[in-house]
Amino acid sequence: MQNLLFDTPWWLLTLIGVVGIALFMAGNSRQNKPLLRSGLVVLLLGIVLAVVSYLVDTPREKVIKGTHALVQAAVNKDKNALATYLHPNASLGGWNRQQIIDGAVVYVDRFGLKSATITGMDVHEDDPSRYVVTMRVLARFQGQNMPFDSIPTDWQLNWWEMPDGKWMLKDVTPMGGANLNGGQMSKQYFSAAP
Length: 194
Known about the structure:
By secondary structure, this protein is of the alpha+beta class. Helices cover 49% and strands 30% of the residues.
């Protein structure tokens, strides 16, 4: 129910709008005041749902926005932004929170990362205070340390809600990419300090 109220699908808003307009037009053409009012009420309901859906972010929307911001912060080598989204006990392979922050900057420079685009994302709720994001990221490189100019990689992110209501990234798990599976990626890139 919360998703319908705060994350109303566009097709439902369209359906409510069409029904509201149809009721309003039918009531207007027949000079039927109750039908006219019903059309206005349904139309206003659709408008209110659209405004509420636009203004209120659900936990799912917060996690999606956080995921996009985190990827962009890594590309921009923005340590402060990375720290904002990482849980105090965050982990990536054998890395801790500080190693993730430092490693992002080191690897962007080492491999010449130019951009990273999330090309696919699946978000599901583990429980009300935890979400799991599985995503594919297309990384583009410029430099001679990479054999290809773009490489797709798959990742799993575990987001936890903190007591203050903020969502933080707890665990990052590489799932594969560049002819490596997740375990090989962890061992090769995330087992030793950056």
